[in-house]
Amino acid sequence: MNDVYKASILKKVNRVRSTGCFCDRKYMPSTTPLTWNDTLYKSALVHAKEMTRYNFFAHYSIEGADIGERLEEYGYDWQVAGENLGEGQRSFEEVLRDWLNSRSHCKMLMNPKVNEMAVATQGRFWVQHFGKQMPANSKKVGRKYTH
Hints:
Blueprint: H1 3-19, E1 21-23, E2 26-28, E3 35-36, H2 38-54, H3 67-73, E4 78-87, H4 92-100, H5 103-109, E5 116-122, E6 125-133
Parallel strand pairs: 3-5
Antiparallel strand pairs: 1-2, 4-6, 5-6
């Protein structure tokens, strides 16, 4: 994915995050901007390719790995992780609109606990991965992720 496309996606997501929005009937106030993370992009792209190859649509891999497990495979030591999926949209603007019209996807997009993201598309699938990495010299004692 080229830098211009990444910047365009990030700008559109951060515009929503900076102004706040309603996720269904719940108002989500403005929150901090996200930065692009290439490791999140790799994990999102692999998941989009897998869904395309095996013709399925799920928050779990074909082998049953959830978002946290899939991020760990790429060395992303996450404190918070999340995922939005889309199917059939022809543009990022269309999938973003659909995510904003879905309460759970919208809440993930507006989650103030994440600070990084990436979006990948393959075939008819869109995958958006969110994360916040563990602070240095810390140890994970539990698992909690949102999708």
